[in-house]
Each structure stands twice: as C-alpha cells, then as structure tokens.
Amino acid sequence: MKITVFGSSKPQAGQPDYQNAFRLGRLIAEGGHTVLTGGYMGTMEAVSRGAAEAGGHVIGVTCEEIERWRKNGPNPWVKEEWRCQTLLERMQRLIYSCEAAIALPGGVGTLAETTLYWNLLVIQALPPRPLVLVGEAWKVIFETIRQEMAETANPSDWKRLSFASDIEMAYQIAVNYQST
Hints:
Strand content: 15-25%
Number of strands: 7
Structural class: alpha/beta
Radius of gyration: 15 Å
C-alpha cells in the first residue's frame, strides 16, 4: 500500500511533531508499505527518515515552483523522487498515487492538500479510501467548519474523514480501513 503523509515543513529534529512523524514513517515501513511525502523538510523529512531507517521505500514528490520560492531540494531519505513542475501537479501526484492519506498538523499547504483530498473523495473522483487527520487541531478546525456551514454543507461529506488522537491510531485506521 502507498500511504501519503501530509504535514508541516517547520518541525526540526528533536521537536515533538518531528518525533511523531518519524515514528509514523517507521510504522508505515515496518508494515511493509511505501511512504509518499512532499519530499522536503519538517515532518516530510521525519516521515521519510523514519521509513528509510526502517528499511522502507520513500517517494518524495517535489516541485519546481516550491524550489524557486524556497531554495532547497529533497531530503536525504527520499529514495525515489517524482519531480513536478507545479504545486498543483505535486498535489495531484500525492493524492492520486496513494491508497490512504494521513494528515499531520501543518500550515496552509497541509490544509490545502487535506481539503482537496477530501473534496475528491466527496465527489467520488477517488475511490473510497481513508483520510486520517491526526491531532486535536484538526478536530477543532473541522468541527468549526461543520457548525458554521451546517445549512450549506452536505452532512454525508463528514463521513469521509477519520480523526486520530495519535500516530499509532492514525496508522491503524489507515491500514485497516473498510469502505462502507
């Protein structure tokens, strides 16, 4: 199974979010699965590192637009680089190439990736598959959206999201997903 992990570029080695992402990468690799990330630093690096150090395969989906904006290349634990021209192409590769996605805490990029994935699930452009959101912040964000848009959003859309309180739970939801 290919599992895409979305997350922040900010966490550094030794910080809790980095360590959690490292553990997630290790769990994915130890389960025999392939990791896909955005390929750069932060939690993308941590997931890649955890998976690579556990003997797993790591695909980094990189992008020329990002590298023009921020001058850095893929992290050293990426074993296979999928190079894209644009951010949108990168997001499409991350989304369409996996059988499950896990969203760690992040910023605007992580939010964009997560909501695009969710919308593609809703309109059935993707077959049913898990989208697991890790951490309390995701619950707060999506519960606020649900409450504020209760009269305009379709209640069944929310059934496409899974929430996990920690990395281990997220991994279990992703690999044991059963579509209903």
